[in-house]
Here is the input.
Amino acid sequence: MTFAPKKYSHTQLADTKTALVTAGSNNTIHIRSIQLHNTNTSNEDAIIYLNDGTSDLIIHKITIKPNETVLIEYSRGSMILAPTDIISGLTDTASKVTCTVTGEEAIGV
Here is the structure.
């Protein structure tokens, strides 16, 4: 099986939980990194969730200082999303935290 690099999401987080990455019904996705950047002049609390089809689990909760970038990197592997898994996120103030999610998807399967 071959994996191809992919940018899954590059968006400003909302102040309500919003889907960032949804694995298709026949896809397995490997998430390599999540990057968060606070463009606000005050601290922002960002929460990243993983929904496994049953419940939303908090996988990262972080306070980001003004103009700070946080990189969550899975350097010893990846976070594997099974078919229909969803990564979502939110922050205190809409459109103040940029979120980029990168990884790999299977090709030629």
In short: Residues 12 and 95 are 5 Å apart (CA to CA). The beta strands are 2-12, 18-22, 29-38, 44-51, 56-64, 69-73, 79-81, 86-91, 97-107. The longest strand covers residues 2-12.
